[in-house]
Here is the input.
Amino acid sequence: MVSNKDLAEKLDTIADILELEGVKWEPRAYRTAALTISSLSEDINKIYKEGKLLELDGVGKSIANSIKEYLESGKMSKYEELKKKYPIDFETFRKIRGLGPKRAYSLYKALGIKDIGDLKKALDKGKIRNVEGFGEKSEDEIRKNLQSFMTVKSDRLLLGYTVDYANSIIEKLRKSGLFEKVELAGSMRRMKETIGDMDILAISRKPEVGMDFFSKMDEVTDIVVKGPTKTTVELSIGTTCDIRILPKESFGAAMQYFTGNKNHNVKLRKIAISKGLKLNEYGLFKGKITVAGKNEEEIYNKLGMEFIPPELRENTGEIEAAQKNKLPKLVGYAEIIGDLHAHTKDSDGINSLEEMAEAASKKGLKYIAFTNHSKGLPVANGLDDKRFSELNKKIEKFNEKEGIKVLKGVELEILKDGSLDLKDETLKQFDFVIGALHQNLKMDSKDLTNRLIKAINSGKINTVAHPTDRIIGQREGLKLDFDKVMEACSNNNVLLEIDGYPERSDLPFDLVKKAKDYAIRFSLGSDSHRLEHLRFLNFACAIARRGWLEKKDVINTLGYNEVLKLKR
Ligand code: DGT
Ligand code: CA
Ligand code: CA
Here is the structure.
C-alpha cells in the first residue's frame, strides 16, 4: 500500500526533474501537490476512495490521474519515464544537505553516481573534488553531510503526521460498541515527536469479536499476530500497531506500563521493590493482595508520588520531583491562545492572510502572528522593506475588524555577519520579530554562536526561530554553544521558539528543559505554510510540556495586548 510519504516524495522528484529540464509551470504544480500530500493528516488511499483527490491543493486532472495510477498499480508512468532519463536516487539525495537535484545531476553526468552506494565509493576515491563546480571543500562537506544523514536517518514516523490517524482508529473502535474502553498508550501518549509504532489498550467483554473487527479495519494492510489478548497489525500509514485487551481491574496498571518509557518503568519497579511491593502490567501487589491496578493515578500515589503526566515520563528527574510533590504545573493545551509563527502567500505560504486568520479563529485562537520571510531568503519569496510596509498596513486595516487579531511579524534573516536583513525603520513596524538562521551555515561552531548572539544582543528580535535548525530524519541540528546562546537570551530578555512543525520539533525538549534553568521564556509557533498546518501548534505545546514548562514560561498564554507589550 502506498503511503502519503512515498507519494509525496515521488511527486517532488517529478518536480525536480522537470525543473532540471527547464519546464516552466508544471514543476510548481507537482511541488504544491507534494507539499499538500506530505502534510495531510488523512490517508491518501482514503481520500482517493472517497473521490476527493481533486479537492487537494495543487492536484489537477493530470496529477490526479498519476496518483490514481500509482495507488492502484504501484507504478506511476510519468515518474518511471522521467526516471529512465535520470536514474538518480533524488529521494535520498535531497535529504543530504547540499545535494539538491542540480548538484546530484552534475555528479551523475560526471561520475555516473546514481545512489548513496555510488556516492560513498566516489568519496572514498576522492573523485568528487574534480567535478566541475565542486572542489575539495565541497567534497569534504558532502562527506560530512552524508555522515550526518546516515546517523539521523531512521524508520520512525513523525507524531505530527500519525496522531490524527491513530485517533481516528481509536474513534472507530469506540464507536463499534465492542469495547468498554479504548486508549492510546506508548510514545504517542507521551507525545514524543517520533514514534516507532502505535500502542492501543482496550477493555472488551467480547475480545475475539473485538480483535476480528480491529484486524479487518480499512487501515490494516497485514496481520502480524492475532490473539484475543494481543494483536499486532501493519497499518497503511507505514507502521505497526499493537492492541492489547485487558481485564478492567488491570487497566490502570497496563496504561502505566505500556505508556512507558522503559527507563521510567524500570525505576518505578525498583521503587516498588524497595517498598516490598511488586509492579507489573497487571497491577501493584503486596504478596497476593492487589494494592492498585484499576486506576493509573493510584499506582503513582501508592508508590509515594503524585501523578506524573505522560509527557514527562522519560526518566529525566520526574520521578524524584513527583516523590517530593514538586512536579511543575504544566502549561495546558487549551491555555495556548495564539500562534506566534505562520506564513501567508505573501512569502512562501499557500493561503492568504484572511484565510489563515479565519482558520486560526475557528480553532479558537485569539491572535496569530504572520511572520513571513525577509528578502535575504529569496527561495522563500522573502519580502523587502517596501513590501513589508505595504503588508503591515494591510494588517492594520484587518485589525480594525472585530475578532481575531493579527500581529505584524517577520521571520528575519540573520545575515552572515550577524546583522539583520531589514532596515531599522521597517523593523520598528513589527509587533513580533523572529530572528532566523537559514543560510551560510557552514561556519564553525564558535562563529555561528557569535553570529546568533550578535542578533540576540541587537535588542531588535523577540525570539530565535527553530533554534537548532534540525530536520528530523534528514539533518542534525547546528553545532551551537547553547549555554552561551541561552545566557545571551536571558540577559536580553529574548525568547526561544518552539517550532511545532513535525520535521522540526525545535527546540527539542531536553534543550527546553535546559533553557528553563536560564529563566528563558518561550514563544510557540505552528510554522504554518497552509491552513492544515495550524494544527502543529499543539505539537509545539507538547514539546513545551515535555520540557517541563508552566503557563508563565510560555508567551502564547498571554492575551493579545500583553504580547504587544513585548514589541521592540
Ligand atoms: P516507540 O514505539 O519506539 O516510539 O516507543 P514506545 O515507548 O511506545 O515503546 P514500545 O512500543 O516498544 O513499548 C511500549 C511501552 O511498553 C514502553 O514505553 C514501555 C513498555 N515496555 C516495553 N518493553 C519494556 C521492557 O522491556 N521493560 C519495561 N519495564 N517496559 C517495557
Ligand atoms: Ca510504541
Ligand atoms: Ca509497541
The first strand starts at residue 157 and ends at 158. The chain has four domains: 4-152, 157-245, 260-323, 333-564. The longest helix spans residues 135-152.
